[in-house]
Amino acid sequence: MARLFLLLSAFAGFTGVALGAFAAHGLKSRLTPEYLTVFQTGTHYQLIHALALFGVALLALHTPGRLVNLAGGFFALGILLFSGSLYLLTLSGIGKLGIVTPFGGLAFLAGWLCLGLAAWKSLT
């Protein structure tokens, strides 16, 4: 699983930087300031959780376990649902896509909870 999480981390980091640059240079004149902020929120959370996936990959090498794997899976799912829905919302203008975003946020929270539980379990 460590290799998968490392690959997902690299992919999320690469695409997060690329999408951030795309927003700053290519979308600045095409999106409203509000939608540009929403898009940037997506890239912000994507990049934070790309680093979280990197940490999970390292942790999976040294302390593998179900909770560590769940954390990585939830972080990846969160990127897809949270950031992905924000990107689609801003680029398509379909407001109903915002319904998906909170599920991504819940996935992020579940990932952090699993990571915390894994840390707690490893210390006891």
From TrEMBL:
Quote the cellular component terms of the Gene Ontology held in the record.
plasma membrane
Give coiled-coil spans as residue ranges.
none
Q: Which InterPro entries match?
A: DUF423 (IPR006696)
Matching Pfam families: DUF423
The membrane-spanning stretches of this chain are 44-61, 68-87, 99-120
Q: Membrane topology for this entry? A: Multi-pass membrane protein
Q: What's in the keyword line of the UniProt record?
A: Membrane, Transmembrane, Transmembrane helix
Asked if the keyword Methyltransferase belongs to this entry, the reply reads no
Cellular location of this protein? Membrane
> From which domain of life does this come?
Bacteria
What family does this chain come from, according to its entry?
Belongs to the UPF0382 family.
- Protein name listed in UniProt: DUF423 domain-containing protein
